[in-house]
Specification:
This protein has 412 residues and is of the alpha+beta class. Helices cover 35% and strands 19% of the residues.
Amino acid sequence: MKMEFFKGNRQSFVEKLADDSVTVFFSGQAPYYSGDGQYPYTPNKNFYYLTGLERENFILQFVKKNGNVKTTLFIERPNPDIEKWIGIKMRKPEAVETSGIETVSFTDEFENQLNRLLMDGELETLYLDIERQGFNTPPTQAMVFADTMREKYAFLTVKTVQKHMASLRVIKKADEIEALKQANLHTKAGYEAILENIKPGMKEYEMSALFEYKVKCSGAKGLGFPTISASGGNAVILHYVENDSVMKDDDLLLLDFGALHNNYSADISRTIPVGGKYTDRQKILYNIVLKAQNAVIDAIEPGLPYAKLNEICKEVLVVECKAIGLIEKDEEIAKYYYHGVGHYLGLDTHDMGNREQTLQPGMVVTVEPGLYVAEENIGIRIEDDILVTVDGHENLSVGMPKTVEEIEAFMA
């Protein structure tokens, strides 16, 4: 991604801030899972969107007064002794070149500099990247910082930037769309490797391991999320994680996977026959899901209410499932289809965006209807990534075998 992309994002963001405010973003840090073992580091996505930087323990600060904005980046001070163990830290010239932020200080200066800004009491609002996924989820670094600032500077009003960031990130720019297309191409490489190598008797985790290997060989940085590789009855569990069952000849394998490119994630689902051929019953159910997906994709255009997508999906599933006798009443579809038809996609797999709004050009949504028939050990989901364009839509997931005929022909 070019530096100008991140500069433009910052310019759009600061226009949304009130005067007499200070805004702070943290790049994050990989948590420890046991002893001195750490999880892999993933940059805070809002921080990355505004800087292009992927380093731990950095801080981004905006100060806005009288319409003027001062932007400061705080990076870790180099320590030659520590660098012998963990590698060279980013220096100021590299940080400036990547982000385009000219004013760079060290993080050990952050608190004193912030205190000097707040001493005269002219700054009234503190914006932080605060979000909570659940009432009892552990506090983030921004949440802890908010509590500290409320205690030390009681005159400050603390607000979250989530609404501002969502309004920016939900509309994808050209660089972002290209990154998502590349992520889909990497995903295609991994998917085709599975189609070529799957055999009855193999373990589900062999498929997820093969997928990760192939997408990295194709140039992907890694995965957007842990791969779901669910065969037989496991596929009725939406977020199945064990991936350790033996795949049988007459099983379907539900795959939910996505590669990363420049921190943007693809999100694709395919359901394939382990033995290379769908049974007649599997074909019937599969084609119902595919019909629902096609109906939703065909309807995507600017101005369509986001919520309408799931309504279209359910209408098709209800009609088709009644026709085959799977259900008798409309409301019974909830037994076999128990999730929404999609979500926004971007830097996060479930990306930021208001689901109460209408579709606009530049939005990218997933379309992923499913049927989960536990009594028959059949779970089917089909998912593509769809860009909303000025005159309709574009499928970013092209070229990945999806119909019964395409999948069986490829596997043959």
